[in-house]
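Fold this sequence, please.
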Amino acid sequence: MKRLVKELPRNFVAVSPRDALGYISRIKQVEPFPDWSLPPDSDEEVTCRELWSRYHTSLKACSAFDFDDLTALTAFLFQRFPEVCERYRERFRHVMVDEYQDTNRSQYLIARCLGEESSLFVVGDEDQSIYSWRGADINNILDFANDFPNAKVYRLEENYRSTQAILNTANAVVSNNVSRLGKTLYTRHPGGDPVRYFFAVNAEEEAAFVGQDLVRRQLPPGSVAVFYRTHTQARLVEEAFRMRRIPYVVVGGVKFYSRKEVKDILAYLRLAVNPADDESLRRIMNVPPRGIGNTGREEFEEYARMRSIPLLQAFRECEMNEAVSARARRSAAELVDIVDALARDAQVQPVAGLVETLLERINYRQYVEQSDEKELRNRIEVVNEFIVACGQHDSRDQGGLGGFLQDLALVSDVDSWEDRGDTATLMTCHCAKGLEFDHVYLIGLEEDLFPLSRFGDEGDDLEEERRLCYVAMTRARKTLTLTAAEKRMLYGVTNNGRRPSRFLSEAGWDRLLNVDFSGEPRDRPKKARAAGSPVGAPPGAPENGASGGALGTGDVIQHARFGRGVVLYVKGAGPKLRAKVRFDSGRVADLLIAQAPVQIVKRR
C-alpha cells in the first residue's frame, strides 16, 4: 500500500496507507466487490476508491489474498452460492466459535450460514469486546439469542483468577455500560488485598513509584505486569526499571519480524513459494547489491507491465529485454537461479537448513558485516535468532516452508511474547487480553488518556474504552494497583492539572486504598500516630478545620467557590494540611485546608 500511495497521480488528495487500508477493510466487510453506485462523500474517499482498485489489481497479480479476503470472500461464496454453503454444512455438522464478541461481519455471516442447519456453539463475553477498530461488532453477541431463537444461553459467572476485591472493582466499572447482557462475577477467593490507587505529581514519579513499589514489596519480576493505554507510556517505566535493575520485556508487536534482516530473508522464502510475489522481489532484487539499479528495475517493471506477467517472469526473459544493461541482465539471471534453487531445496530441506543454504549462496552474512560497528553485533544476532526460530518450527511442525510462512503471517503481538518467568512484562491493555499475572499495575488512568480524548463523553467508543479497562483489571490474580499523574507529556505537549479518569470514580473511591510514594496509605494513621489525627500529623496534633474532624480520601466536600467535590488524597499536617480535590465541574485543585472555605458533606 505504501508503494501504491506513492504512485498515485498528484491530482488525488493525499491519504495515509493506514487510512486507505482501513477504508478498504470496512468496504470488504460489507461488499467484497463494490460497484460504487453511490457518489463518494469526499475527496479522500475518491482517493481511497482509486487505491482500492489498484490494491485489488496488485493482489490479483500476485495471486494473493489479504486477511479480510479470507473471511469476506468465504462469506460471499456462502451467500451467493448456496450449494457451496450446503457442502460445508454437511462436512461440518458441529461448529464452535470462540471469542464470539470479537467477530466481524464476515465472520458472523460464516457462522450464521453454517449454523442454520448445524449444531452451533459460541463462547464469548460482551464485556471483553475491545476490537471494534479492526472490525469486531459487539452486536453479534448481543443479538445472538435473537438471531438463533432456539439457542440456550449459559452464563459462566465464576471467576477462577482474581480475588473478590479485584472483581468488585472491575464489575463496578463495566456495569456503567449500556451495551451488555449483564452478569455478576464471583470467585472462590473471597476478600483479598484492596485495590490500591496512587496519584503522582507527574509521569516520572508514576513510573518511579511502580519500580520502587515492585522492589519494596520484593515481588518476583516474572509475577508482575504493567499495562498502559498507549505504547508511548512505556518509555518512562522502562527507565525506572533499568535504574533499579529490574529485568523486563516490552510486548509491543512483531518487532523481531520487522527487522530488516528478517524481512530480507523472508522475501527470498516467500518468492520461492510464490513466484508471483512482486513485492518480495522488489525488496531483494538488489539485496545484497548485485547490479540492478533503479533504471534496471524500472525497465523490468515496464516489461512485466506491458506483458501482464509477474516481475520474476520478466527476469526470466531478461535476455529478450535489450533496454536493460548487460550487467543487470546477468544479475537478473543469477537471481532467478537462486530462487529456483531455493524452491527445489524447500521440497527436501527443513526450514533452518534452507535458510543456512540461502545465506551462504547470497553471501548475506558478509553483507551484514559491512554494517556500522555499533549495529554489526545486533544485526548478526538477529540473523542467528531467525535461524533458531526456523529450527523451533522444524522441531514441532512438518509443514515445511509453506507452513512456516503461514504461521508467520498469522503471528500476533502476544504470539511474539514468551513468558520467560524471570522478567516483568510491559504491554498495552489490548495485548494483555487472555493473559494473567499475580500483580498488575494499570497506569495512566487519566481523562483524555484512558479513556482517550477522541472518544468523548458517551457512545459506543467510550463503552469500549470501559470494557478495555475491565479487561486490564481482570488480568490480575492477587493484587491490582491503579495510577494516574497530574502532569504528563502527550504528543509533544506537557499537560498540567490532568484529571483522574472517570473509571476511577466509577470503580468507587471507597473501594480504593489511596497510597503515597512509599506505598503507605495516605489517609490511614500509622502506628506511631494517634487514632483520628490528620495524615502526617504527630500524635496529639489538632484536627483540620473542615467541619472539625480529619479529612480523608473519598470524602465529599462543598467549596464556597468551586462547589461540590471528592477528595483524591490528603497530605501534610495541622495548618499545612493540604487536599487534592476533584470537583463536579471537572476541575482538580490543591487546597490548603486551613484557609479553604470547605465543609464536609459526606464521609467515605
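Residues 555-602 form one domain. The chain has 23 helices and 18 strands.
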